[in-house]
Amino acid sequence: MAKRAVHRQLQRRAANAATVAFPGCISPHACDSMSPMTDAPFAAKLNLVLNALSMSRGRCAAQLGVDKSLVGRWCAGTVTPSAHNLERLTHLIAGLRPGFTMVDWDNSVGDLAEKLGVGAPAAALTSIDGFGTWLSAPGLKDAVAGSVPAAAACEGFWQTIRPAAAMPGNFVRENVMLQATGNGVLSFRMGLYNIRLQGWAYSVGNQMFCAAVNIASGTQVFSIFNRPMADRADLMDGITLSCMADTGGAPVAAACLLHRTGVLSGDADADDRQFEAMLSRHPVIDKGVLPLSVQRHLLRDVGPAAMASGGDAVLIVPFIKSLAVGAAWEAPAPFAGLSLPG
Predict the structure, then answer these.
(1) Which pairs count as long-range contacts for 58-65, CB under 8 Å and 24+ apart, including other chains?
(2) DSSP tag of 125
(3) What is the DSSP secondary structure assignment for residue 124, as one 8-state letter?
(4) Strand pairing partners for 176?
(5) What gap in Å lies between CA 162 and CA 225, rounded to an integer?
(6) How many angstroms separate the CA atoms of 283 and 230, rounded?
(7) How far apart, in Å, are the Cα atoms of 206 and each of 34, 177, 212, 225, 258?
(8) Read out DSSP for 234-254?
(9) Measuring CA to CA, how many Å separate 32 from each of 11, 27, 29?
(10) What DSSP letter does each residue of 55-92 carry, written as one string?
(11) Residue scoring higher pLDDT (69 or 46)
(12) Does position 287 have pLDDT exceeding 70, yes or no?
């Protein structure tokens, strides 16, 4: 009985941590299958159908008796409906468009649009195109183009370590995969359980800048990390900014570590599978495994009281005091003997 109670408590803690990290998080045991963010065809077809029917995601969810966020994930391509849900969805559409069957999901977007009597959607602006527009800002484009070696140094599997805003005194982690694109920009993917964020990262000077969006809910995360000037980065630290899952979506900032957990294999499919496997890790870190020096580095006292004793007025992680190290150190001092739960 005691073991079951502890297990239930850990599950609740995990759910709380996931909700804070990724607003809109649902149970990791959701019945709909996970998609590695490449199932754009079904998502495009579903969005086309909903637009053709002038049906909102909320109305669709209500008709099917599922959570609105689940329909949002179908539309974003992060998950695909289970066979049961797909059958119910098809039945719902057939009630409004007689003749619609399960076979129609196999049509191309153009053919489906023709059947529904609507125009095919215009090609969507891709993430890299949109990001390229931002990178064209004066000075930034050249700075990023000159950081190709830095991108190669940061490529790999990582995990974040940061204080848990909703569980004071505790620490949580998310899983990250950074992939170099060859032009100084890194593809940035972050996730936990059934939540996926996707975005971009790039280095300018001693810092790596990251921006990612929850592709189901639109919630965004921004981070700036101090990075080592080395052939391979193993540890970075900085500040991350996101929103809590409370009523007002309160902005929350925290000091954060980015700790390498592995290197990419060079096989894109194998790396995707490895990243997906990482997402089942329990997010709550027992602070007993974190050295006190790391805890103090992440839990920073700022404001008037801190200023009175020589501290900072605002949250700051100066490069000169950074824990960022390169591969030259086999066992970085702050993490010597650290074995995080897998």
Answers:
(1) 60/89, 60/92, 63/92, 64/88, 64/89, 64/92
(2) P
(3) P
(4) 158, 190
(5) 13
(6) 29
(7) 36, 20, 20, 8, 15
(8) EEEEEEEEEE-SSTT--EEEE
(9) 20, 11, 9
(10) --HHHHHHHHTS-HHHHHHHHHTSEE--HHHHHHHHHH
(11) 46
(12) yes
Question: What phi and psi values does residue 201 have, to the nearest 5 degrees?
Answer: -140, 150
pTM over 0.90? The answer is no
Instruction: Tell me how far apart the alpha carbons of residues 45 and 229 are, in angstroms, rounded to a whole number.
Output: 46
Would you say 241 and 225 are in contact if contact means Cβ atoms under 8 Å apart? no
Of 182, 171, 145, nearest to 259 (Cα)? 171
Q: Determine the Cα–Cα distance for residues 195 and 22; give it in Å rounded to an integer.
A: 7
Q: How far apart are the first and last CA of the chain?
A: 25
What does the DSSP assignment read for 184-236?
Answer: SEEEEEEEETTEEEEEEEEEETTEEEEEEEETTT--EEEEEEE--SSSSEEEE
Measured CA to CA, the distance from residue 24 to residue 226 in angstroms comes to 29
The values of phi and psi at residue 216, to 5°, are -95, -40
CA distance 112 to 93: 13
Query: What pLDDT digit, counting tens, does each position of 155-208 carry?
Result: 999 999 999 888 888 899 999 999 988 778 888 999 888 888 888 899 988 999
Partners of 191 in the β-ladder? 175, 196
Find all residues with CB under 8 Å of 232, minimum gap 6, and list them.
153, 326, 327
- Whole-Å CA distances, 33 to 1, 93, 249, 251: 32, 21, 28, 31
Residue 126 is given by DSSP the state P
- Token pair 């639109």: residue: 218
Nearest Cα to Cα of residue 237 among 163, 311, 317: 317
Distance (Å, whole) CA 321 – CA 107? 57
Please tell me the distance from the alpha carbon of residue 80 to that of residue 38, in angstroms, as a whole number.
11
Q: Classify the C-alpha dihedral 263-217-42-40 as positive or negative.
A: negative
For residue 156, the SS3 value is strand
* CA angle in degrees (0–180, nearest 5) for 191-194-196: 35
